[in-house]
Amino acid sequence: MSALFNFLAAGPVLVLFLLIGIGMAFGHIKVKGVNLGAAAVLFIAIALSAWGEVYGIHIRVPHEIGIFGLAIFTFAIGIYSGPNFFNTLRTSGGPILVMVVALGTGAAIAFGVGRYIFDLSAAEFAGVFAGATNNTPALAAAGKSSGDPANATVGYSISYLWGVIGMLIYVSLALRLAKGDKDKPTPIVNRTIRIERTDEPVLEQYHELVSGRVSFSRLRRGETGPIFRPGMFDKLRHNDLLTIVGPEADIDLITERLGHDSSLSLTIDRQWLDFRRITVSNPKLAGRKLGELNLNDEFGAMVSRVRRGDIDVVANSRLRLQLGDRVRVVAPRAKMDALSAYFGDSSRGLTSLNPVALGIGMAVGILIGELPIFTPTGATFSIGSAAGTLIVGLIFGRLGRVGPMVTALPYTTCMVLSEFGLLIFLAQAGTNAGGQIANAFEGGVWWKMAILGFLITTAVGGILFAGMRMVFKMGGTRLSGAIGGTQTQPAVLAFANERTGADPRVALGYAMVYPVAMVLKILTAQLLGAL
User: Fold this and answer.
1) By CB neighbour count within 10 A (0-12 exposed, 13-18 middle, 19+ buried), where does 375 fall?
2) 486-508 b/e with 16+ CB inside 10 Å = b?
């Protein structure tokens, strides 16, 4: 075995891809319908590295490669969370407060139990806190402020594994409750209704009734007239047929106010108006609002809905297009080919890498992550490349375009980049932790560190789960992402994504708390190490 381990130790790139391949092979194995997914790469890497240490051989994936993977991962998460993140942030004060209380409780346990019950040094209990919350920058801060990085690393290594497993258990509990989520996106449907009103109401008032969550795609006067696209100021007459696109509950409300469901469907009659799904691949349209395109003036057309990833959303004038979006266009039949050419309608739009946005965004994010931040004690810390690239990714995703530069990436590209970056990071983190665990058990206080780490992770996860679920009624799907974001642990996020089919609410919950959690953990570990 020594010869094999020496061979692997000399080839870190080979080790990286072996761990990704073998880890994911195990990750796809289901036990009672549950699989580890990408988290299996972490555990396989820990096992391989620890096994090598038995022979005195250090099998590692270089730290710089891990940072590269993590930065790619968080940037991609930011890009596809950005369009909804800032709207969500306005109502996220309560969940963020729960996260602060949870981490504060974990720090109090680290200090109180670590010092007064287990008689651990500041470096040891600060390192345990960093490991129990799975935060490597916090470990660096604890080692620096305590002046004893070796013992801080031991505490980190002992508590790290339960930090992952414990939070995976909480995520599993959250996802078991996800069937009753009230924040689940409502399926988009279309329905033709017959108008019973005789007072000729204006369409605009019913658009405002449901806060613009529907669109009106077709109107026919009577049963035999031409079908045309209605305007917001068109009046509805008795026996008109109107097609509405939107959430079913909103359409029910409008139907109740205007008339009743019709047995006729205007979407079937394509003599006058046709519809088509078109892929947005024209880079000139990326990042632009639908209302800026003037489709009605140019083509007599409208977009009734937009499919991003696996989710349909009702189109509105404020929605920004991204490369890879699939728009459902309603227009005169003669205009369809021209519309396809206008939007691009090429599969390249699904997978465009957009290297300009990727390169500039990553560079700016890494620079932000490395900027020194001064504390009241005069010490400095940095938030790290992961937090920096996440912040820039969120901003780029929200903007969509800055002048001629498209700042967003297609949804499919983001999914590929985030998964690949995550797998790279997990392989590196696992080999690093596995190598340290073997040395950690040589000390006589390892069991105290293990118990302390168990208490911290369990308390933090329990407060997160109870507070966000019971106090703020957060849905289980978003809660699973928030748990991963608070833990700043990509493996937890990967597990939640695997279980939900990459539901966007998971990434939204993760991004909502991650930057604050990262800064708070670094400051807390620095304070604990100095006590």
Assistant:
1) middle
2) bbbbbbbbbbbbbbbebbbbbbb
pLDDT single digits (tens) 188-214: 888 999 999 999 999 999 999 998 889
Residue labelled with tokens 């079913």: 248
Query: Is residue 144 very low, low, confident or very high in pLDDT (cuts 50, 70, 90)?
Result: confident
Tell the residue number behind the tokens 């966007």, with chain if given. 504
**Whole-number Cα distances in Å, 475 to 30, 452, 466, 504:** 25, 30, 12, 13
- Domains of the chain, CATH where assigned: 1-60 (no CATH), 188-349 (3.30.70.1450)
| pLDDT tens column, 414-444 | 888 988 988 898 888 888 877 777 666 766 7
The Cα 84–Cα 78 span in angstroms is 10
Instruction: Count CB-CB contacts under 10 A for residue 253.
Output: 15
The whole-angstrom separation of Cα 117 and Cα 529 is 17
In angstroms, the CA 340 to CA 343 distance is 5
Confidence (pTM): 0.72
Question: For the chain, what percent of residues have pLDDT higher than 70?
Answer: 95
